[in-house]
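Exam revision sheet. Question 4 asks you to relate a sequence to its structure. Input first:
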Amino acid sequence: MIASKSKMNLALQGGGAHGAFTWGVLDRLLAADCFRFDTVSATSAGAVNAVAMLSGLVSGGPAAARQSLRQVWDAIITSAPPDFNMLNPLLASLGKIEPFGAPSMAQIAGLVSPYTFNPFDFNPLRKLLTELIDFDGIARHGKVELLIAATDASTGHARLFTRHELTVDVVLASACLPMLYRAVKIGENSYWDGGFSANPDLVTLARDSRAHDTLVVLLTPATRDPVPTQSVDILSQINRITFNQPLLRDVREILSIRQAMAGPQSILVSRERKRVAQHRFHLIEAGHYTGTLPEISRLRPDRATTDKLFEAGAHETETWLARHAACVGIRETVDLAMRLLPESLAPLAEKG
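Answer key, structure tokens:
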């Protein structure tokens, strides 16, 4: 039996238009209304979903949050110019196989700076988020904390913005693909997509949140077979590897802390690191659905694809609720290291 209003965090990965899967996850969680969300750690499309949900929660609870998410995704689908991404030669190349003798990636890269092809820094997301999201209401009255990741364009370091720092620029920074949009300046620093540095942050979330459980929603497949040979597939694999590395880094750190806790020097582990080691994780994955989609589908939201991903997210969440919701607050239902780090099996094999 599901405990009434169990406390739980959410960790929402980025993935462009594939974030419609996360929309489906959140919609079903809100409909079930059996959890109190403590903190949401989110990146890029995950950040868009997070603020859409929180804006609704502030104004009218779970039902309003579901409506807010639907309004935002409807606006994303209808307001995105179908050919805007095609103005960028690099992104245009994703939609077709390059013919023999086509310019190299290095040659293309010299032509695609958004400071030249997008001189007015046109971003339809700014207008729709400003119109649909109550950023001030979330910052002032929200009861769910936020960790929105962006990447410092100068250093490559992650910056985690909290609920009290929330503005539309914070979300745009978290979702700023540097080959498509200019870096977003906040204060004295400029930021790119948070997926380069925290996608999403798990360690800070586990250490600092008041909840002891986190549901992770992953959009990008952990593996891909076979090895790609076509240019479009190679670029897709490069993106997958790049944007998964920050998450894998966090999982390795959590594994390292847990191993230290199990060793003879466990007494030396700090209280903060013990909180990380003892945190319980749960997982809903989209890889089975997103792994078969072309890379360009991340950047070109269309109704058919987003509807399918929404339904997939809803279905996976219904399954997860039936199997694992009662475990929240008691035990974790996924070992992230075992699931995402094949090399973590080696020490176990040696012991066995």
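Marking note for examiners. The mean pLDDT is 86.
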